[in-house]
Amino acid sequence: MSKLTELIQGLVEPVLTGMGYELVDLQYGREGGRYILRLFIDRPEGIGLDDCEKVSRIVGDILDQEDPIPNSYYLEVSSPGLERPLKKEADFQRFAGRKVRLRMFAPIDGQRHFQGRLLGYQEGRVQVQLDDGRRLAIPLDQVATARLVFDLAEDEEA
């Protein structure tokens, strides 16, 4: 995370938490000749358009007042979607039992991509039961990306 995104996160995350939202991810970068700041938010009941509009207004006001971004940008606020990213230790604990897809920075046993059932998080390691039956305990700092896998059968059970 860059210093700028850390600064932005420090400004908006406490406010969002106080409103009952979780800041799942924050991305800032240049796309198609313009700068875009994207916030992905969630809450237990899910996210709707009204939530995105409310958060956009409040975050926009905070950023206008603090002015941490040196150039003009577009602010986008959305839900992380059904295949939300898992980033924090708490994410791996919260979504234990769900299906996940992991991509490693470096291969483990010659493989960089894994899919299976998330068992949880213990002692700095993501615990996963792979689709092929193997169990892995992967240090979190070796995980490049982790995402939930949308599973219709799993969703119907919940």
Task: Name the descriptors.
158 residues; alpha+beta; GMP Synthetase, Chain A, domain 3; SH3 type barrels; 2 domains; five-stranded antiparallel β-sheet; three-stranded mixed β-sheet; elongated; Ribosome maturation factor RimP; cytoplasm; ribosome biogenesis; RimP_N
Please give a structural write-up.
It is a single chain. With 158 residues, the chain is an alpha+beta fold. It has two domains: 3-78, GMP Synthetase, Chain A, domain 3, CATH 3.30.300.70; 89-157, SH3 type barrels. Helices cover 29% and strands 40% of the residues. It has helices at 3-18, 49-66, 89-94, 152-157, and strands at residues 22-31, 34-42, 74-78, 99-108, 111-122, 125-130, 135-139, 143-148. The strands form two sheets. The chain has a five-stranded antiparallel beta sheet with strand order 7-6-5-4-8. Strands 1-2-3 form a three-stranded mixed beta sheet. Helix 1 crosses helix 2. The protein is elongated, with a radius of gyration of 17 Å. It starts with a helix and ends with a helix. The model has no long low-confidence stretch (mean pLDDT 93).
> Domains counted in the coordinates: how many?
2
Q: Could you report the average pLDDT, rounded to the nearest whole number? A: 93
Order of helices and strands: HEEHEHEEEEEH
**Could you tell me how far the N terminus lies from the C terminus, measured between alpha carbons in angstroms?**
34 Å
Report strand order across the widest sheet: 7-6-5-4-8
The outline comes out as elongated
Task: Say which CATH homologous superfamily of the largest domain is assigned.
Answer: RimP-like superfamily, N-terminal
Cα-atom radius of gyration: 17 Å
